[in-house]
Design a protein that fits this description.
The chain has 368 residues and is of the alpha/beta class. 39% of the residues lie in helices and 14% in strands. Helix 4 crosses helix 8.
Length: 368
Amino acid sequence: MNHPWLADRTQTIDSSGIRKVFDLAAKLKDPVNLSIGQPDFDVPAEVQQTCIDAIQSGKNGYALTQGMPVLRDKLQASVDASYGHNDRKVFVSSGTSGGLVLAMWSLVNPGDEVIVFDPYFVMYEPLVSLVGGTPVMINTYPTFRIDVNRVADAITSRTKLIVLNSPANPTGAVISEEEVRDLAQLAAERGVVLLSDEIYRLFCYGQTFHSPATWNEQTLVIDGFSKSHAMTGWRLGFVHGPAAVIDEMVKLQQYTFVCAPHPAQWSGAVAMDIDMSDAVSDYQRKRDLLVKGISDCFELTEPGGAFYAFPKVPCGTGTEFVQRAIEKNLLIIPGNIFSRQDTHFRISYAAEDEAILRGVELLRQLAK
């Protein structure tokens, strides 16, 4: 029963299904956990030491809302070098999730439509609903590619925003240069904001990452250090886009998150100079280990990036399959957490090789 004090908006969303799996994991004894979407490597030692030094030298007060110059100026220089746009400004957000929240608040009016590609990151649909927007889902099964013609058909006079996530959570899909370019140009032609969630941009295997900002100067980009440097708990993200939008997001951050953690920003500046290619190569190897182990048992589009795979269940629903997996002490996530369909499940291979191999064996048993 809902409490009479609660605002109506709280009833538009449910607790994250991923969180429910995490809660379940705490009750199992030594589960094979392929559910968690965070790197299994540690924060680089130099980044850790910089944070310790920052704390011990007194950098513990409020940071500037837009970000400390030590990090923000470095990010701005990097963005300018990459895109050369006359109007592209950066600010430091409290994680990429904080950036997403501020983007929705800044851009979406009640009744505005937001195009989201299904499957999607678990936060997209609830955030659109919380600000009074209407999610418009475009189904990308079974290959998780983007048909730009379908996007064009879905745009109406109420469309405000298109949300792109590549490399993607939960599918690991990386859309092609042609798809990114065509989507960027379509958004520009129709006057629709294109929001590009690029938190997994470092994790592209055997291909080059392409940002739609290359072809659309109005693209709003959200990025951060959580996945690339294993800094998930540090809440350090950044956003870049047209100054008018960024200034409004900074204003809203002042009244909500206030700032990203101050010591972490000094660490972020150091993290930008660290070569993480060994970690990326290791995750490509883990991807190959998983795909080789289950591709003959499950219908699976090989993930091109991030650290997830999204197989189709052999029979029944994804929810039923995951329940059977949990009975075998294997933790995976049902696909309906990320989708209007309940036909798939998500595996995170951000895990030790031993866990991946144990998971492969259990999945092969379940497939039979």
